[in-house]
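Quick look at the format.
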Amino acid sequence: QVQLVESGGGLVQPGGSLRLSCVVSGFTFSEYYMSWVRQAPGKGPEWVSDINTGGLRTTYANFVKGRFTISRDNAKNTLYLQMNSLKPEDTALYYCARGDRAFRDARGQGTQVTVFS
């Protein structure tokens, strides 16, 4: 079955960095756009970034542009999110999803990112 498993979250101070990973199985990873989405406590899901099948085209939400970088390794069935210059407002559950900004049809359980001072 389709599985997406995130890792790499944790506690970090403002200005710090984290790298999230998402390992997928159960489908042909290289044939799908992939996204990162986040959800803060008490708020709805918020799309963060997506990447095309080959990894050469990426898009970002304005609130992370210039700080986060999405990438993928199709040989390893793995999606990444490098997060730099983290802010307290980046605190959320981050999950990877199959699909792009407009449509996603599968997601993982997520990994918690907490930015605190």
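Next, a different chain entirely:
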Amino acid sequence: QVRAVESGGGSVQAGGSLRLSCTAPGFTSKRCNVVWYRQAAGNQREWVSSILTDDYTRYADSVKGRVTISKDKAKDTVYLQMTGLKPEDTAMYFCKTTGAGWCFGDWGQGTQVTVSS
């Protein structure tokens, strides 16, 4: 199973921006979807955004309008551009590939996003 690697997290003030990266070698050629989730301390993991093989994108209501998901097929990397960050966006962010067979990936280590008010 493929395991994606997340990066790009950090600490920012409210209103700031971050771009998270999710690299999963082979996901483009294997035609996998990619999803981002986040988990705040003491909370369940929640879905944030998805990008499908046909580049269709979806967003959770909590981030819609502030987050853009995109992919660089040449790099097998999916980006999560986050703007207008709020303290409630503070969480560990995870990505994984989804789909049948090879595409059913494992969770990565995550990347921490901390937003201070």
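The mean pLDDT is 96.

See the schema section for token definitions.
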